[in-house]
């Protein structure tokens, strides 16, 4: 095992920071050997089989091409739930776990209809369905690939959620039969002009449909959702968004113009304006 740890560290040292290499070493050994962190420490002197060496080598070659570890392994953890991911869906981010945490804190024991717009892997929808078991959760996405993965994630975790194909930019609200008690969305919010500051592992591998919005209209998705919310969110109920930190105030102003009140902006763990919630005043 010691030899494998050294091999992983040597192979990745020019590409990843030291902290990330440590995390990757642990993830790789957990995946290949099915070892917990304690097992890794206990088995430091054990010798891995040739096939396990080969598995590690294959992972390392893909990591060297900047491929995200979550796509290489085909899964990740989100809010304690095992979530399958593939190149057609965004890899769930830690900030989005913070959004789930916030919703659960502010809506303890919610019993009602929850809608997650732009559900991707289904991570938000499934976490809410798991921790608010008396609610009915729906997830919408334009991407069939994402909806298939979200459905698979629901099945594998034995969590009930309903995934539907909808284009939020062309939604006819008169066709929506229900009104929701909470709407959440982490829509595409990165401007095209921000691309130049982004890492290759995101740009080359993650779906641009999930990430980007035109520079000329950065609030496009938020506006469409706020507009739809006026008819599909029950009066007095709340909307929650993950937002682009560059547009906190603008997003607040926009939702207020649609008649939402009691608007709060929340910071993420890095101190950036990252979430907004607002009440539909009816
Ligand atoms: C930033 S990702 C969020 C995925 C997931 N909710 C998460 O937090 O990891 C945005 C999602 O919006 C979806 N999307 C993009 N355009 C859309 C549209 N017009 N209507 C509905 N969903 C859309 C993408 O397919 C993607 O899954």
Q: How would you portray this structure in words?
A:
By secondary structure, the chain is of the alpha/beta class. 42% of the residues lie in helices and 21% in strands. The chain has a 7-stranded mixed sheet, with helices on both faces. The N and C termini lie far apart (62 Å). Bound molecules: S-adenosylmethionine (SAM). Belongs to the protein N5-glutamine methyltransferase family. PrmC subfamily.
Give a quick set of tags describing it.
21% strand, Rossmann fold, seven-stranded mixed beta sheet, binds S-adenosylmethionine, single chain, two-stranded antiparallel sheet, alpha/beta, 12 helices
Brief characterization of the structure:
Residues 5-74 form the Release factor glutamine methyltransferase N-terminal domain. Keywords: Methyltransferase, S-adenosyl-L-methionine, Transferase. By secondary structure, the chain is α/β, with parallel strands linked by helices.
């Amino acid at each position: 095992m010691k030899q494998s740890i050294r091999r992983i560290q040597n192979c990745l040292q020019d590409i990843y920071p030291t902290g990330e290499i440590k995390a990757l070493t642990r993830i790789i050994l957990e995946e290949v050997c099915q070892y917990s962190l304690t097992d890794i420490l206990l088995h430091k002197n054990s010798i891995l089989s040739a096939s396990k060496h080969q598995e590690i080598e294959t992972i390392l070659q893909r990591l060297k091409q900047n491929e995200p570890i979550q796509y290489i392994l085909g899964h990740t953890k989100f809010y304690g739930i095992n979530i399958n991911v593939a190149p057609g869906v965004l890899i769930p981010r830690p900030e989005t776990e913070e959004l789930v945490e916030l919703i659960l804190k502010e809506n303890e024991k919610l019993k009602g209809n929850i809608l997650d717009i732009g559900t991707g892997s289904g991570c938000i929808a499934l976490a809410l369905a798991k921790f608010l078991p008396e609610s009915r959760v729906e997830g919408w996405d334009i991407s069939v690939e994402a909806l298939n993965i979200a459905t698979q994630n629901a099945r594998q975790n034995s969590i009930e959620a309903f995934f539907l194909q909808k284009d939020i930019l062309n939604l006819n609200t008169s066709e929506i039969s229900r009104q929701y008690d909470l709407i959440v969305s982490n829509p595409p919010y990165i401007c095209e002009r921000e691309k130049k500051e982004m890492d290759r592992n995101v740009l080359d591998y993650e779906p641009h449909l999930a990430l980007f919005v035109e520079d000329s209209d950065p609030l496009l998705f938020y506006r469409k959702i706020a507009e739809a919310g006026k008819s599909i969110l029950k009066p007095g109920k709340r909307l929650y968004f993950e937002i682009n930190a560059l547009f906190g105030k603008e997003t607040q102003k926009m939702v207020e113009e649609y008649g939402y009140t009691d608007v709060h902006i929340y910071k993420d763990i890095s101190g950036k304006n990252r979430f907004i919630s607002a009440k539909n005043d009816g």
